[in-house]
Amino acid sequence: MECEICGKPVSETNPTRAKIEGSVVVVCKECAKLGTIQKTPPKPKFQKNKKEKSNVQPKRNYRNDEPTEELIENYNTAVRNARESKNWSREDLGRKINERVSVINRIESGKMTPDNKLTKKLEKALNITLFEDVNDVDLNQYLNNTSGERTLGNIMKIKRK
Fold first, then answer.
1. First vs last Cα of the chain: how many Å apart?
2. Is the pTM higher than 0.90?
3. Which is it for the CA torsion 13, 19, 25, 30, positive or negative?
4. If you ran DSSP here, which 8-state letter would residue 131 be given?
5. Strand residue runs (E) in the chain
6. For an engineered disulfide with 112, which of 20, 102, 106, 118 has Cβ 3.0 to 4.6 Å away?
7. How confident is the model at residue 9, as a pLDDT?
8. Low-confidence ranges of the chain (pLDDT < 50)
9. What gap in Å lies between CA 29 and CA 3, rounded to an integer?
10. Residues near 61 by Cβ (< 8 Å), separated by ≥ 6?
11. What is the DSSP string of 75-105?
12. How far apart, in whole angstroms, are the C-alpha atoms of residue 49 and residue 136?
């Protein structure tokens, strides 16, 4: 084993650990003076048998954990068109759903994606549907490569600024 500062050999049976500038490193006796010597961590009194099984179950990923609905792609124009069809100003909509006008401005301009709670408020106030079921989306419509396999590049639409 070597000193992590100067490279001199360090005894493997009793290495010196020192905290130097916030990092704990294995060092020789000379380099240990540059920092504060750290105590060696105590060995555990009892070691768990490798044969014993832990009671902790690994977390399983279920299909139910995946979202079932997703915000529609053109949510901003849908919100604006619905608001204008009701002859409401942005201030009126903000008052109805208890949100600031700046939030409505950012949603309608597409600069902000509303969270689920705000989306539900907008749907209720404007009587529109902003969520679509993910299960209803047919991914085969995006299939356009020659190998016949679906890839992420076939499905994604990349927005360029």
1. 54
2. no
3. negative
4. E
5. 16-20, 23-27, 36-38, 69-71, 131-133
6. 106
7. 83
8. none
9. 9
10. none
11. HHHHHHHHHHHTT--HHHHHHHHT--HHHHH
12. 50
CATH class of the domain at 73-130: mainly alpha
Euclidean distance between CA atoms 153 and 156, whole angstroms: 5
**Would you state the structure tokens that stand for residue 36, as one six-digit string?**
């504060």
Both tokens of residue 150?
A: 């679906």
**What are the structural domain ranges in the chain?**
1-39, 73-130
Q: Considering only CA atoms, which of 85, 53, 66 is closest in space to residue 133? A: 66
57 C-beta neighbours (distance < 10 Å), count = 6
pLDDT, residue 148, reads 61
Whether 54 and 44 have beta carbons less than 8 Å apart is answered as no
Can you give the pLDDT at residue 34? 83
SS3 of residue 16 by DSSP:
strand
Those residues whose C-beta lies under 8 Å from the C-beta of residue 6, and which sit 6 or more positions away, are 27, 28, 30, 31
Q: What pLDDT is attached to residue 69?
A: 80
